[in-house]
Amino acid sequence: MASRTLLAGLMLCSFWALARADDNTTKKPVSTLYSDKLDTTFSINLPENSGDVNFFLSSPLFSWFGVGFSSTMAGSPMLLFYASADGKAVTVSPRYATGETEPAYNSTMRVAVAASTVNNGTFAVTGTCSGCRQWSSNSTTQPFILAWGADADFLSTNDLAARVKQHSGYGHFVMDVKQATGPGGTAMLLALDATKNSDGAHLDGDLQADTGNHGGLAHGVVMALATLVVAPIDVLTAGALRRWPVLNIITSTVMMAFLLAGMGLGIQMSRLYIATQQYRTAHQILGLLAIVALFLVAVLGVVYRLIVKSATKRGQQPPEKSGLLGKVHRWVGRAVWVIMLVNNGLGLQFAEASSTLIIGYAVLAAGVLILVGLIRWSIYCCTRHSREELEEDKAGIELAQLYAPSHHMGHGAGH
């Protein structure tokens, strides 16, 4: 009896061991990448004879997280993940990248989300992407890219075409697409146990922290210096120091150099983002118009100075209408300066700068504008008396010249 019981026990143990062995040797058609640095898991399952990609992503709540189905951004289908508007689910945006620029929403790629949650600073999402696969059906491995946005630029929206700022880090990885091919779908991915191990995938090199493109900051600093420092000096030299035209030429040249440098940086940054690539934003339009207007103002100033210089060489007064050129040069220049001050504020708003920075700039710009106005008014008041005396002396000379001939004629007749 005891021997029969022992035999039965041994048989049960054998069946259990065989079942375990069979379970261990039957791998599910899934490839998984886990990054301990990001505490992020990304898994895929690829249905046979289909272009779909079933995916699972679990990650801390970055501003956004992106996965590209290629080795580089150029020509890569991508999925961008960010919190929904209510902060309770995940928005999955299918996009297409044309280069090292913001990827654009692609409506030809379709995403069906099976489940998504946001909980305790972590999001998880499972779904299917139609149109993400571009590799050959004979491929065994496939390169991927990943990137994530800065925590400070947290994004929470349902908009599939929402603007995203430049990534703060990126990396490359490789997945075994042959291992991931087979039945299962999103139901299988949802049933998988949470894992902190890679299986059928590995990082290709280290994750890279992006120092960022500082072109936007440089553009803002250069334009701020041009409008808050150089332009006020130029306005004062153009209006109050006309006796020293060379000084005005120097300040105008310096200001134009600053503006051209700022414009160049702005054009460079415009290529990186979808919203600015067509140059249709108010900030871009006003900026370009202001610079064109300043070039025209500079031409008027040069023409005016040439007319004055030519008349002075001949010992004549400049034509009366030439003074109109000088007034247009000065007043249009001042108006363009005010427009540039406003446009800087529009630039800060467009860049989604903090309210503190925008308000601080507005206060500073208003203060500079008022200060220049007060200085200009003070100079005008101080020099008004001198101008009146000059006009009186000029009128006296003209009267003396007018009556001198008749006076001499009368004196000669008396003799």
Automatic annotation (TrEMBL):
<dbReference type="Pfam" id="PF16010">
    <property type="entry name" value="CDH-cyt"/>
</dbReference>
<keyword id="KW-0472">Membrane</keyword>
<keyword id="KW-0732">Signal</keyword>
<feature type="transmembrane region" description="Helical">
    <location>
        <begin position="217"/>
        <end position="239"/>
    </location>
</feature>
<keyword id="KW-0812">Transmembrane</keyword>
<feature type="domain" description="DOMON">
    <location>
        <begin position="64"/>
        <end position="149"/>
    </location>
</feature>
<feature type="transmembrane region" description="Helical">
    <location>
        <begin position="285"/>
        <end position="307"/>
    </location>
</feature>
<feature type="transmembrane region" description="Helical">
    <location>
        <begin position="357"/>
        <end position="377"/>
    </location>
</feature>
<feature type="transmembrane region" description="Helical">
    <location>
        <begin position="331"/>
        <end position="351"/>
    </location>
</feature>
<dbReference type="InterPro" id="IPR015920">
    <property type="entry name" value="Cellobiose_DH-like_cyt"/>
</dbReference>
<dbReference type="InterPro" id="IPR005018">
    <property type="entry name" value="DOMON_domain"/>
</dbReference>
<protein>
    <submittedName>
        <fullName>CBD9-like protein</fullName>
    </submittedName>
</protein>
<feature type="signal peptide">
    <location>
        <begin position="1"/>
        <end position="21"/>
    </location>
</feature>
<feature type="transmembrane region" description="Helical">
    <location>
        <begin position="246"/>
        <end position="265"/>
    </location>
</feature>
<keyword id="KW-1133">Transmembrane helix</keyword>
